[in-house]
Amino acid sequence: MIFLIFGNIFSHLSGTKAKQKMAEQPKLLRRPLPPKLPSKLSTPREKVGKEMASQEKTRKSDIPEEVLQEEKKEKEYIIHYVKSTEPDRKEGPFSDANNAPDSGSVEGDWETRLHFMASKKDEEEKLMFRSQVKVWHCFLNRKTALNLQAYFLFHLPDLTPLMDTLVCLNLSFNNLLFFPMEVFNIKSLQVLVLRSNPIRKIPNDIHRLKSLKKFTISFNLLAELPSGLFLLDDLWYLDIAYNYISYIPNDIKNLRKLEYLNTEGNQLSALPCGVLNLPLKSLRIENNFIHPLLWNEKIQSQPQKLIHLAALCFSTNNLKERYNNITEDIKKILDDFSVCDCCSGPRYGKGLQLIQMYRNVFKFGRLPFYFYACSPSCHRNFVSQPEA
Ligand SMILES: [Zn+2]
């Protein structure tokens, strides 16, 4: 049945009547053909190319063969150079060695190449030379401040001419990997700025800068602060923001003139209780780990050593008077104590840490401080006190 229907249709279409019908309705079946295109495009660019080629041909006929060969070699060299520097560059209409490449792009490429040819060492030497010139300029003009900000220095220039006169030294935004020890010889230094360097450690020798009043070492890689820092009696400004410091020693209480303290962007859970006794006018502590939910890890104290508890018992009960024959070893243990943060009595060993919240201190609503108690009973008594 299906074959019969298809057969009828085929015979119907192949018939003369069908041909006439298709001829009558050509618009429905055939699209009009696009107008005939010329076999080859003759754009203005090609015309220019042709003219240039003909000019080149006439020029070549006038120039000796040796000169032409030299010119060809030079062009080939330039093209080879461009290809070698740009391996992914697609071949364009001027990629052929017979055609000259765009002269502007070649010159630009040469400039770029020359720029990068200046080695890193040369750059460092250039910057070091500039910084040394600055030192001499400072010396000759009898200036007491030296600004070497953003010289990208890996080490300092020779500061010998300024050792007796320099008061302010700005070394921020450099590449100093280590604390520059040379500064310890500048006895009159009062301001030291080391912001934005990759320094990991402050040497304990910083206490040698007896005149230091203002010290900025923010945006470095510090994890701890040395005890020598807290021996700087004249220090009134300390900026240690944006480091990796998780603990500030309670020795900070020794900085009796400290008025400005910036500890932002560190890993602090609380401030040492010694800060409460400082004459601070400005304190910044934002972007730290000061939320109570983050304290559990920090305040897990180790149990106290038995020898420390025994020494505490011996000392608080005044047993020294009863026992006259105390050996030197025991005397040494008994004399090695610090002051308890909670009861102001003797504390042997590190003690037991606790964090207490304080209200309305240094213009903060609530601020946590950590303390070290001398014994479990002292710890218990202090924690049971109402929030200060
Ligand atoms: Zn105590």
From TrEMBL:
- Origin species, per record, is Meleagris gallopavo
Annotated segments matching region Disordered: 15-64, 87-106
Keywords from the named record? Leucine-rich repeat, Repeat
Name recorded for this polypeptide: Leucine rich repeat containing 63
- Where is there biased composition of kind Basic and acidic residues? 43-64
Superkingdom of origin:
Eukaryota
Q: What SMART domains does the database record attribute to this sequence?
A: LRR_TYP
Secretion signal span: none
**InterPro entries, per the entry:** Leu-rich_rpt, Leu-rich_rpt_typical-subtyp, LRR_dom_sf, LRR_domain-containing
What GO CC terms are in its UniProt record?
Answer: cytoplasm
